[in-house]
Amino acid sequence: MVDVTDAGIYARESPYLDRYVQLGVASGRVLSVSFPEVLDDDAEEDHPVLDRIFEYLDGLEPVTFEDVQVAMTMPTDQRSVLEQVQQVPYGDQVTVETLARMTSGLDHEDETDIVLVRTALDENPAPLLIPDHRVRDGPSAAPPDVEQKLRSLEEL
User: Fold this and answer.
1) Is 120 inside any structural domain?
2) 69 in helix, strand or coil?
3) H or E stretch including 20?
4) Mind listing the pLDDT tens digit for each residue in 83-115?
5) SS3 helix, strand, coil % of the chain, rounded to 5?
6) 110-135: per-residue pLDDT in tens?
7) 22: in domain
8) What percent of the chain has pLDDT over 90?
């Protein structure tokens, strides 16, 4: 388990993404991952999760984040969807329909459940750690240019 006990805002500039990667951390969990173009004045650079993210962005070898605790403070059904997204391996893709099939209690043929899956992806608090870029036909909570670069990195 990665130690994320230091509460605060952490950010570092990514030349690959051409923007910053910013984490919000509290109570031993990552609250958010965002990709601002301007650095938050309160942000610090050093955090073990940022180190892992930058290893991932180096693209030299697959990096996983299953041991990083992400605070998922959303309705249970959306959390279930995002927990399934976390199971999609590096370099693999699924569709929204497949993700609905993977999520207990959802019907991949029910339009309401498909909308639920798309909403969960769109409201993902920690894109990259919860790799919504691996859902081929779904929205990502990351900006479109970041989503595309993450897909390119994994050759998706």
Assistant:
1) yes
2) coil
3) strand 19-26
4) 999 999 999 999 999 999 999 999 999 999 999
5) 35, 15, 50
6) 999 999 999 999 999 999 999 999 99
7) no
8) 83
Q: Which residue has the tokens 């990259």?
A: 128
- Domain of 119, CATH number, reads 1.10.10.10
Domain count of the chain? 1
Any domain includes 139:
yes
Of 17, 41, 44, 43, which is closest to residue 128 (Cα–Cα)? Answer: 17
**What global pTM score does this model have?**
0.91
To the nearest 10°, the Cα dihedral for 117, 118, 122, 125? 10
Q: Where are the alpha helices (DSSP H) in 21-110?
A: 48-58, 76-85, 96-102
The secondary structure of 86-107 as a DSSP string is TTSPTT--B-HHHHHHHSTT--
Residue 70 lies in a domain: no
Q: Which amino acid is located at 144 in the chain?
A: P
Residue 84's domain comprises 76-153
Q: Residue 54 above 60 pLDDT?
A: yes
C-alpha to C-alpha distance for 123 and 63, rounded to whole angstroms: 23
